User: Fold this.
Amino acid sequence: MQPKGNLEQLWIVRCFAAVLLFGQVSLHLLQGKTCSRKILEHMVTAGPGSISPVILVNIFAGMIFTIQTARELVRFGAVSAVGGAFALAFCRELAPILTASIIAGQVGSAFAAELGAMRVTEQIDALYMLKTDPIDYLVLPRVIACCLMMPIMMIFALLMGLIGGVFAAAQFYKILPEIFLESVRNFLEPSDLSIILLKGFIFGALVAVIGCSWGLTTKGGAKEVGESATKAVVTTWVSIFIIDFFLSLLLFENPVL
Assistant:
């Protein structure tokens, strides 16, 4: 068993490796180096392959959020503000974070496990022997696929959460769908949609780069492959929350600053 200090140092080193990998991916992308036939395969994994948990989580999250907020707002007679609260909190923040977390758990862990298995079985070394760059062949298609599909999945998540919110408001608090949706429309600005899409692009890059980086830096055997997949997901979750915090400060109006 490795000492705690060594584990922390190893985690820092692998985080630094992920940053370097992001730089390499950006450079190769600008140079137009990628295996395009692999992109569609990974798009299916990051999109339709993850649609079921995204639907379920966002529908129920939308209902839970509406129940909790409507209970307090109805008590103060602010029925018309229920949809607005939903728009500001769920649409701007909760839905993107939930969706990115689901994709990280399902897709990011798969990327880490796949590339980790290839690393420990020396398949990565075989690619070098064949004069094939693993970044072009393995990493870049995954990054492009996640960056393309994550924004689409977030828009879909918003729609599912909105359906759940409308249902909960009408079923439990007798708030008409027209009132709920009108409140959402009044509070949610067109620029919010662009911000959500931007978050999807950034979170997609995080999921793919961290997953691939943890896979490529795997050493040992089957046990280490599983550990890499787990640590990749946890690191991605932490990164998503940190990045989302700074994006919220930069992109949304803050009266304190």
Remarks:
- Residues 134-173 form the longest helix (40 residues).
- The CA atoms of residues 97 and 241 lie 8 Å apart.
- Residues 51-248 form one domain.
- The radius of gyration is 21 Å.
